Amino acid sequence: LIMVMALLFLPIWGDGQANLLVDDMAKFGILVNIFLAVFNMVPIPPLDGGRVLAGLMPPSVARILDSIEPFGILIVVGLIALDIYTELELLVPYILVPVVELRDVFYALADHLVATGGAI
Predict the structure, then answer these.
(1) CA angle at residue 77 from 72 to 80, to 5 degrees?
(2) Which residue has the higher pLDDT, 4 or 68?
(3) Cα angle 30-118-33, degrees, rounded to a multiple of 5
(4) Burial code of 29-57, b = ≥16 C-beta within 10 A, e = fewer?
(5) The whole model's pTM is what?
């Protein structure tokens, strides 16, 4: 919605302010998508990472992973709560560090695409 408003008010604001707003919104969208992609690959059964892990395991282990899937969301919430309220640091090294690294790569790619007019 903010991006649409920025494009609509481009003649009023001038190029500088609207471009900054669109740029910030695009970068925030990139960051949110990277976080969701990395978080979704955590190897706990209701997430896609759990399904990938089950697909790589022998059938007997995959059945065990499938049996804990109904409780997987409780496991995810519990791990997040443990990370917030204790000093286990589960999120920082395994989720936030890859997010920051991927963010830097995609921001550099987006800046390059803007600078070159879309040419890779």
Answers:
(1) 125
(2) 68
(3) 10
(4) ebbeebbeebbeebebbbbebbbebbeee
(5) 0.70
**Token pair 């695409």 is at which residue?**
113
CB-CB neighbours of 61 under 10 Å: 12
Cβ-contact 23, 35 below 8 angstroms: no
Contact call for residues 68 and 45 (beta carbons, < 8 A): yes
Q: Which amino acid is at 111?
A: D
The two structure tokens encoding residue 95: 């989720």
Q: Please determine, for residue 99, whether its predicted confidence score (pLDDT) is greater than 80.
A: yes
**If you count them, how many residues does the chain have?**
120
pLDDT score for 107: 84
In contact, 106 and 98? CB cutoff 8 Å: no
